[in-house]
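Supplementary Methods, section 5.1.

A reviewer requested that the exact input to the structure prediction be made available. We therefore reproduce it here, unchanged from the version used in the analyses.
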Amino acid sequence: MAKTDEKGVDGVAAAKPRFETLRAVFWAALIALAIRSFVVEPFKIPSGSMIPTLLIGDYVLVNKFSYGVRVPITGTLLFGERSPARGDVVVFRWPDDPSQDYIKRVIGLPGDRIQISDRRLWLNGQLVDRIDEGEYVFAAREPGGPGVMERYLERNPEGLEYNVLQANSGIAGPADRRGPWLVPEGRYFMMGDNRDNSRDSRLWENPFVSPEQIKGKAFMIHWSWVVASAEQAPRSFIGDLFFTLWRVVTFQVEEIRWGRIGHSVGGRAD
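The structure derived from this sequence is encoded token-by-token as follows.
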């Protein structure tokens, strides 16, 4: 009668759980990648161009279904095409360098005529309404502009209200780029809410964004904190994750903005 090779049986038994674990990790990673590519993608706010709507250190969720399902790298439409609405806050590939992602507000739709006159926004020959809401004072550790700026509640032709900042008339900025800009068919004109401290369509070599370059609509702040300043060289998602974790374990977190977590993106700022 042949003897059972107990060592061999144990080896097979031990290998099976390891295989099952690796398979579970593989499928978990694949599902996470699919969700990030086609459904929801996190985006970190790296600059002050969208203050007061979004602050440096905010993390937003971007709905990649908002304007249809597209191939992640090429932007080719698969199905469900929908057009961005005026006032949407969107993440897109910068037309001058598609390797960089930007986040701005949609100001001009296809066929629109955009112009700046007397530091005011004009759309198709009509002055865009705004209400003076006084001063916006930057916190000591909040970069993004002069110490004090003027805060306005702007109301676009569709009735959407959102806050913008503008420096006083003695400070030159993008608002002094007057235009006009005529938005081509199938393109969009973007501006930051921090109007005098935003590198947007008014300053780009290629001022208009195509649907293929739009990654999705920002809809919620899911995390917000202030961390010690550091050189922000371009990093991949994984690289930025490890860099952020390193700053956490080395106690470089200065403040967690609990009150901003869960807030929607697009309308009035806090």
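The mean pLDDT is 82. These observations are discussed further in the main text.
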